[in-house]
Amino acid sequence: MTRWALGVEYDGARFCGWQSQAGVPTVQDALERALAQVACAPIRVVAAGRTDTGVHALGQVVHFDSDAERRPEAFVRGTNAHLGCDVAVLWARVVPDDFHARFSARARRYRYLWLNRRVRPALFRDQVSFEYRPLDTARMEAAAAALIGRHDFSAFRAAQCQAKTPVRTIHSLTIERRGPLIVMGIHADAFLHHMVRNIAGVLAAIGAGERPVAWAAEVLASCERAAGGITASPHGLYLEAVDYPERYEIPVSSGVVGAGLPFFCRR
User: Fold this and answer.
1) Strands (E), 156-230
2) Among 18, 140, 166, 248, who pairs with 203 as Cys (CB 3.0-4.6 Å)?
3) Rounded to two decimals, what is the model's pTM?
4) What local confidence, expressed as pLDDT, does residue 90 receive?
């Protein structure tokens, strides 16, 4: 058996998340069906992260084992030929047997996009989170500083989160405005269920002036999910990249979130 790693991007709008579920469309099911056509045998994949309903990916990484003798290009072009237009395999490579898409990862990077204007979008409405309230990015960035570092993020985890510990380390958390588009970038060793969307919800309330800048730190210190307000929409969330030890030679996603929305960025 040979262990393969794939880089995958997808538009999550029509999927009920990554993980396979009976009776509903998922990214995992779509990818496994397509891979099976190329390998001429059932394939089971393991992903770096299980994204929720409506969440997108530029740099999802998966691994699987197969005894099919195929060239990397066959797993790229062949699999894409059997996928719908909203999922694409970007690259394929043979990896050591000890590589694990989830457990070998050292860190993950997400992006969150708000379209911040008075009028809702007609285009790309499933690729951004629409926010009609004017958001002050300086306030959001000041509040975000309290979340950087190693903390107990219980206040930002979903009730159904199955992680053994709520302690995570955020390496960086940035807020940038590009015209009416606001981009939040977050890089951490790992994430809890709904953690990024809950952070986005808190920062949006602060940016809108509904809460003080100090509220982010207060929510964090409370360790209570009820203290944190709403969970932001999944449509603005992207799994951008996954970091691995260099010895595995895993390509880094070259996608730039927001690059496909140039007209939103005009000032």
Assistant:
1) 167-178, 181-188
2) 140
3) 0.93
4) 96
Report whether 91 contacts 72 (CB < 8 A).
yes
- What confidence tier does 162 reach under pLDDT thresholds 50, 70, 90? confident
Using DSSP, state whether 76 is helix, strand or coil: helix
Task: Using CB atoms within 10 Å of the CB of residue 13, give its burial: 0 to 12 exposed, 13 to 18 middle, 19+ buried.
Answer: middle
Residues classed as catalytic: 52
The alpha carbon torsion through 97, 100, 101, 102 (nearest 10 deg) reads 180
C-alpha to C-alpha distance for 3 and 5, rounded to whole angstroms: 7
Which residue in the block uniquely carries the two structure tokens 């990249």? 241
Q: Could you tell me the CA-to-CA distances from 129 to 8, 10, 76, 106, 226 in Å, in that order?
A: 22, 17, 31, 28, 22
Q: How far apart are CA 205 and CA 228, in angstroms?
A: 10
With beta carbons less than 8 A apart as the criterion, state whether 88 and 8 touch.
yes
Tracing tokens 């579920």 back to the chain, one arrives at 21
Residue 91 makes CB contacts below 8 A (sequence gap 6+) with 6, 7, 72, 76, 251
pLDDT band at 267 (very low <50, low <70, confident <90, very high): very low
Coil, strand, or helix at residue 10? strand
- For residue 204 the two structure tokens come to 């949006």
Mean pLDDT score across all residues of the chain: 94
For residues 32 and 44, is the Cβ–Cβ distance under 8 A?
A: yes
- Give CA–CA dist 165/50, Å, rounded: 17
The Cα–Cα gap between 230 and 258 comes to: 24
Q: Answer whether 29's CB lies under 8 Å from 50's CB.
A: no
